[in-house]
Design goal:
Helices cover 21% and strands 31% of the residues. It starts with a strand and ends with a strand. β11 and β12 form a beta hairpin. The chain is built from 4 helices and 14 strands. The strands form 3 sheets. Strands 1-2-3-4-9-8 form a 6-stranded mixed β-sheet, sandwiched between helices. Strands 13-12-11-10-14 form a 5-stranded antiparallel β-sheet, with no helix packed on it. The chain has a 3-stranded antiparallel β-sheet with strand order 5-6-7. The chain is an alpha+beta fold.
Amino acid sequence: MKTTTLTGPASQVPGLRIERHDSVLSTMVPAFERAREGVADDLWIIAREQTGGRGRRGRLWTSPPGNLYTSHLMVDPQPRARIGELPLVAAVALAEAVERVCGFDGSGPGRDGGFVRLKWPNDLLIGGAKVSGILLEAEPRIDGRHCVVLGIGVNCQSHPEAGLYATTDLRAEGFDISPDRLFEALIERFSVWRGIWQEEGGFSAVRTAWLARAAHLGMEIGVRNGSREIRGIFRDLDATGHLILECADGEREIIFAGDVFLGGS
């Protein structure tokens, strides 16, 4: 384990602390360990590889060297009722970080011209293929404060071939980006968007930025949650980031959680 300091824009983030590991089960494990030890807000954990990385709903996240694996520990970042907004905050920040380090301008070699899109609630897509995952977990601390950890993985140099969704990586899209370079950009952009989110009414700006990159907006999608699947047109996000689906009968349903599939497939 090694604690390091970054140079460049990310080094200007007040209170920034980074803990580096060669190999961990998951970066979320040491993040929660530090939380239970009483570590203060704003700690980033980064590892070269994970031996037991997890995605949403307990799915395995393949974690060989060459990709970005990081977790961010926050302590009482907002009232608990608003913690569910954080994955969308992280998705917007990560999308901007990827666009910046790769120079996406709508004319790059990516399959959709290089524009990063967001699949609800927090997956990044390039050309319709998933390039990252974001996982949110939280637990109370013995002193009564609330610890929140965002786990973030980005396929920089490789990607799994099998899974629920088509996948890709930045190198496959024509961009040879190191995990450290992307990590520095992510820290800087997340600090900016966290600050916006924590302002009064700040999630409205997050919601607007998320919708500007929304994949499948106005299209028929399927949302699967356990054994239940519902289809409809993806119309909007509500004021707290939940998906608004227009069903075949014209009624609108608010979706709080689930896996999104284009066309319900």
